[in-house]
Request: fold
Amino acid sequence: MIMKRMHFHYLFGLTAVFFIVPSLLKAQLPPGWDYAPSYSSHVIVIPLSANPTLNGEPLSTGDHIGVFYDNGGVLKCAGAVIWDGTFNVSVSAWGDDPYEAGKQGFYDNDLIHLKLYHWATPEEIEAEATWQNDCPGCNYWDGLWHDFGLSALATLQATTILPGDSNCDGTVNVLDIITTVNYIMGLDPSPFCFASADTNGDAVISVLDLIITVNIIMAG
Ligand SMILES: [Ca+2]
Ligand SMILES: [Ca+2]
Reply:
């Protein structure tokens, strides 16, 4: 009887560790950031010195940093960590499971995309990373995913994209039309916020982006 009870406690303990704890962690993930650990991973250290910023301000404690892989033009989450603000953190970027059909994680040499999730607003923003090339124990600093990889970020900066704000001043008006026209004509305007100017998101600045920008201005 005693043995039976111990057995029950042991099982319950395991159940708690393996099911309750992961489900609590999962509940805290930003929407759409679900991911599954696999047999392969690349560990990315995000030291305090990387000082992740959102629009120039330090990332808030409790915000998320996620790693994303490209799956047919759609970015999918393959690992995330909560930014603490007082300790270095690290995130495992999980690789694809070769025994499952489809792509569930990174392939070798995939570009590692990073995103921030700011809970206060809330919003999800793509971030620009630079990598340390001299961190102890690191074996990669090319920004690409490698099985058994260990890398560390040097910087991580994200800027909110305001569609149409090609001159990066926080509002969308006729000045943005002029800036985008100048860019198309090769006049190299500065500042120029490419991601904001590319209103149709096709990675090319064209007259199509101008039309959408005009529509944004007219919609007020
Ligand atoms: Ca503007
Ligand atoms: Ca475009």
